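How a chain folds remains the central question behind the approach discussed here. No coordinates are needed to read the tokens, only the vocabulary itself. For completeness, the protein is quoted in full, as a sequence line and a line of structure tokens:
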Amino acid sequence: MTSFRPGFVLAAVLALGAAAPQHAMAAPGFTPIGGEDLARPKQGGDEWLAAGRTYTGTFSSPLATINAKNVAKLGLAWHLDLPTDRGLEATPLVADGVMYFSLPWGHVMAVDARTGKEIWHYDPGAVKQVSKDICCDAVNRGVALWGDKVFVGVIDGRLVALDRATGKVAWEVQTVDRTKPYTITGQPLVMKNIVVIGNSGADFGARGYITAYDVNSGKQLWRFFIVPGDPSKPYEHEELAMAAKTWKGDSYWKNGGGGGNAWGNMNYDPELDLLYVGTGNGSPWNREIRSPGGGDNLFLSSILAIRPATGKLVWYYQTTPGESWDYTATANMVLADLKIKGRQRKVLMQLPKNGFYYVLDRATGELLSADKVGKVTWASKVDMKTGRPVEEPGVRYEKKPIVMWPGPYGAHSWQPMALSRKTGLVYIPYQEMAGAYRNEGADFVHRPSNFNTGSAFYEGTSFPKSFASGALIAWDPVQRKVVWKVPHESVWNGGALVTDGNLVFQGNAFGKFVAYAADTGKTLWDFDAQTGIIASASTYMIDGDQYVALLAGWGGGAPMVGGEADNFTGVRNVSRLLVFKLGGSDKLPPLAPQVVSHRVPTGTDASAAVIANGNKDFGIYCAKCHGVGGESGGLVPDLRRSPMILSAEAFRVTVTDGREPRGMPSFSTDLKPREIEEIRAYLLDKEMKDFGKPTAGK
């Protein structure tokens, strides 16, 4: 819950006198980018310098050349085919007429924002064996700009500073222990000549932290651990002494590290000098295993306010005490000034996975409101006196399994919501899908580089498509109600962009990029992107023309985990950068025919016990990429249809050796030949049972 820490405030204030200048030198021809630019851009809406355009993270633009009255004339100005077949989650940044964006694995490209002509392409040479440690595709959520540099986190844990003009490496630093299942998919944030980066890994067994580095040298300045470490050793910083009191025993440490990894967007308030970080889920998910005897387990699923100069905690608010359901608080946060109950308040807003829309005072962490958005069955409400959710009976699944809402995808995942300064509404990429949880209890075994949830996630419950839906919701954060709602037939739709032209842009899981009226939700325009869309767009102005830029490419967690509920959209990955303007006349080429297997299943004569063993091991080692129940989401091969399963030798060699250039890791240290053959038997049996069912496109 909220914590006031006066001693931390004093220390941070004393440190401000030594703060570095807000601007750094830039290369000739480039305008240096600093804190003023990211807080109050001098060019108005002409450029897009940060993920949400500014530190506030509103994903909104004052541009209105494209508006509700003329958006029907919007057309494709140009497009760029991209060298990847994984999900695209970044929002393009634009500065000095150049567009910068990241691709999966940590690639970065710079292109001419007028024409799409490539200027440079940085390949980090990521070791793709790290894909064993990836929960949700090899995605990257974007770059950060500061001075003459571009900053990117690489999937293998490196933070890299690139020269804006050339793409050459200025410096790089390894931010994680590569012997542990850490990855980086999130976007760095830069303020006061400090670049901050988090990491991922809680689903597998990792201890979360964020680290600050000097933008010019890469020197580490501080590190804030989100959860306590080895109980037998001293605390790395004083906040952990308080956090440790909310944990029981040492099971969390023996089973991976406790989690809490911060992998989402971060924000900064220059006036308050506070860095805001949302933290992740527990590791294992199941508190009964992670912290027997209970406890809130700080600072899991929390919003942290930190002094960037010192790394000291000022306040925190925990959205889900004792997290047990993958209810991260890593969804994007929005900073705004709102009039609440007659009083102007500086607020921070977030709709995390748990389904409650939170409004906090961002100076103090005081909870101002918390309301359900959509279907939420795990808690009845948030008690405004204590700030704690009121849980429903049995939701912790200690004694019996449960199906509840939201599930691990959350009511709102990482896809950004947007705030309009014109309507005052927040536009939320809402999704509704259940989760199935069972306490593994004494049967729990920690397996390196695999899902270690303690909730039997490996059993791979594949919900029918009737369980999966979404919506674009316009939410009034002052009146605390839904103003309008556009239903979607699937989960995993794109993030939002709102403009002063009374427009909200959102892509969806069926491949449509749509413009809605911001005040009513009326559909005004759409475009067939030929692939599912998950990212938020950006918009910018050059030579009097307003452009809308979108990275379109199906992928991320839902398509990787697969299952029936995620596959019925039928889309595939066709990764492109799409840029639109009024009167644009570019056309996408026709899609290549989809490869469909017409093989008649042969089945298997393996025993039921062998197939059951194969089912379990598939769930543990394979489902995170090839889909629960063998139902791939289309990014990687659907193994039920793969010719590889027809040959025991070919299947064994592929699983043992891997195909690293394609992102397929080696499982030579994880699976014995007998176990590999049991997985093959399961797939042959599954192919027979699922014969005739549609598959996602690849």
Notes: The mean pLDDT is 91.
